[in-house]
Design a protein that fits this description.
6-stranded antiparallel beta sheet, 6 strands, 7% helix, mainly beta
């Protein structure tokens, strides 16, 4: 897992937490980082969508490498897999 960053390579994943009651994560492919002052802004395409969105990542987000995750997890909106289990695969 990459700690929150102010920049991320195009193609990596922006992973944001769902509301606490849902206890999951939503994944989006980073299409571009938008320049300008202020917090990081990304143009992303959410898994399951055919349109781009511009987002300022919320607290608790993370960037996941496309090299490590060429495809999102099976649901891309669900509980983060157990880290130990993922490393064994």
């Amino acid at each position: 897992m990459t700690p929150p960053a102010t920049s991320a390579p195009v193609g990596d994943w922006l992973v944001v937490p769902l509301p606490p009651v849902e206890r999951g994560w939503r994944w989006a492919r980073i299409v571009a980082q938008l320049p300008g002052p202020g917090p990081a802004r990304f143009r992303v395409r959410w898994v399951g969508s055919d349109r781009d969105s511009v987002v300022v990542p919320p607290p608790g987000y993370r960037i996941e490498s496309a090299a490590r995750w060429p495809e999102p997890p099976s649901s891309a909106i669900g509980r983060w897999p157990d880290r130990g289990h993922h490393e064994e695969e």
